[in-house]
Prior knowledge:
The protein is α+β, with helices and mostly antiparallel strands. 31% of the residues lie in helices and 22% in strands.
Amino acid sequence: xxxxxxxxxxxxxxxxxxxxxxxxxxxxxxxxxxxxxxxxxxxxxxxxxxxxxxxxxxxxxxxxxxxxxxxxxxxxxxxxxxxxxxxxxxxxxxxxxxxxxxxxxxxxxxxxxxxxxxxxxxxxxxxxxxxxxxxxxxxxxxxxxxxxxxxxxxxxxxxxxxxxxxxxxxxxxxxxxxxxxxxxxxxxxxxxxxxxxxxxxxxxxxxxxxxxxxxxxxxxxxxxxxxxxxxx
Length: 232
């Protein structure tokens, strides 16, 4: 096979969409138009299409800037121009390190999830022919669940031909809700789902008890009544 002659002339310049040359030492490698992915939650730098933006933050003089001036400010500070409120008029932007900004946002979301109260649902199962002893035993458990702040999902399970007693199951669940009215409220009335009739109860919010200061208690004890004064 004949060897193809190797081209030794000058190389053509890289296309616009190709890799960019490395920057000078100490120069920030800014994200270009082709660097953004669909996973980016925020629009940054040259991707911002507005003609002017409102800059906010501690590191800039807040106000409305033309987009070119805002980009120059970000480049001068070796940071990113981040569009945080695209629906505002004009869009609101901040000049920050984009990766650091994303890290802070993720950290804040984790903290919010940790603070959010997790709703716990406890299930209690009845049969259509539940006796009184079993009923009271499960009622006691339900009271404990509601006191600790959990929701209670009680249901009557119908097996085979016992579905004929669905009216009896509904009466049982309504009695159950009535016996728990001091501890929980009905969130969902009895409803038949397949072989189960379900009722949902959520705990009542207990009002905090008002504590009287110790000084007032002592004062009430030591203050003589009018009857005592008259007797003296």
